[in-house]
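PT: before anyone asks, these are the final sequences, not the draft ones from last week. 662 residues across everything. Please model them as a single complex and drop the result in this thread when it's through.
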Amino acid sequence: MQTTLEPTTSFEVTEKGFYGHFGGAFIPEMLYPNVEELRQNYLQIIADPAFQAEFWQLLEDYVGRPTPLFLAKRLSEKIGATIYLKREDLCHTGAHKVNNTIGQMLVAQRLGKKRIVAETGAGQHGVATATVCALMGLECIVYMGSIDMERQKPNVDRMRMLGATVIPATSGSQTLKDATNEAMRHWINNPVDTHYIIGSVVGPHPYPDMVARFQSVISQEIKKQLLVKTGSENPDYVVACVGGGSNAAGAFFHYLNEPSVRLVAAEAAGQGVTSGHSAATTALGKPGVLHGSRTILMQTEDGQVIEPYSISAGLDYPGIGPLHAHLFDSGRGDFYAITDDEALQAGFELSKLEGIIPALESAHALAALSKMGLKQTDVVVVCLSGRGDKDLSTYSKYL
Amino acid sequence: MTQELTQNRIIELFTQKSERLLNVYFTAGFPELADTITVLRGLQEAGVDIVEIGMPYSDPVADGETIQQSNGKALHNGMSLKTLFAQLAGCRSEITVPILLMGYINPVLQFGVENFCQKCQEVGVDGVILPDLPLDLFLTEYAPTFREYGILNVNLITPQTSESRIRHIDAESDGFIYMVSSASITGSVKGVTGPMKAYFERIQAMNLRNPRLIGFGINNHETFDTASQYANGAIVGSAFIRHLEEKGTSAESIRAFVQTIRA
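LR: through. Structure below.
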């Protein structure tokens, strides 16, 4: 289903990379040439018909797009609304992340890069990156927090099997934030031939915009599929989990300028928003700069980044993408804080009701449904961002 | 150059001395919280030309392991910008060496940029290095405030910085330009290589209006000597942090370190 990646909304990023008060490119000079090279070229590269053809072909033949929009009847009955699941868990590699890695890989190739570096939290982005590197024959280095390497071991093995070098990030909380720091450092040390594939809508401009464009295939498909199923492109709600927020950015993208569609973001509250073990950024954060952009950030009064916590390795990030910060700040998005327990319960519930084991990340989005005050007539699309195989060891502790 | 900046200690320094300047970095509140002034005094007594005090940050992406660990330790010790300014208050009665603060933008933003500049002026800080504050943002949003309080903003260039951007940075800088020796984070480079020398020569030939100090990978007499042949001097960071960790903060130990660099 070839189409374009053009922005359609007033939430479009500015030339300097800002969404409202958030965004920008706060980077050391060592990264300036790389980021500037990307900024000056990404729009032309992805608008090129040859790029578009290759991108859409790979999404169709390799990723398996379009992914289904599934009417979850038993879940709908339970919740008391019409619930559709956008099945990103059925993408090759098991999550939406591959939409972006394919896009960035093709950009990297056109910039003449020989090596790819990436960070990963849950391992889904690392696997998606390792996969496209294998596909294209590029060297792949993935940084992953050493704690995440333990709790997401199957993904570590997958990356290694795909030929990637997985390097543990041992600083700080040894999770996604630190893996991102290490990947940025690697890029600083290897500026000429390396492209850094950021896995979420975070980082310096143009990453948040570029990643959102590659993920916008999700909302583009939802519109077409929902029209066929319901006669309207627009649901009442689109729900997605937000760590950095790439699946949410993709699910929201073509609805950003449709005010009748409420955009709902589920953040990880961990053991509870006020427990001191949380990653509920909008509830706990305030404006600050991390990893190259101004966003909402969990930080101390002195501006030191607070270590986040979530049972879901993909959501324990202390910030959110600048687009999401703008959605929160402007009131366009509704943000819910979902605890570990609520997410686990929602994960078990979907497994039993629909025969789909969701990733713990996606389970956070599902858990938001019972908090939204839904009416029987409401049509809701939940972005089921990934599958739960990687989380079995966590789920099994609660069986 | 504004009137305030003509009285800036860094600018004064470069008008008096143009060769073999040694700038030494250390992290505030490291190894112990109360060590900031001890180390500063030690470096002055040992005869360094500029002291760069690190404002510790939880996520220092342009720094390597050594400096990150010292940042972590300092934060664990309880260091903050508020504490640092309290420690530096009154130090100008005995400290005459120019002082730079080096750190990342987020703690400064939370402190408040104007408040920060005002405090810098109050305690006698001459300039700052904020690697993740982009030059264009600095110029559009913060330059007037920095100028009002007479605080220099030192900018970096790297081997990958284009000639036109170097010219732009040179035009917009006062004090000196921080030449990052190679594509790297701090503390990760060993020695001065051929390509580094070619880059040093290229920059030397550009005849920039600002003096230049070379940093990253300067860790002994040989590297300091080589850097000094191509620039006005050099900056030592990680090597000094390691020294403080291993040999302590006594004046004698600091003097010994500085002597090995200067030899």
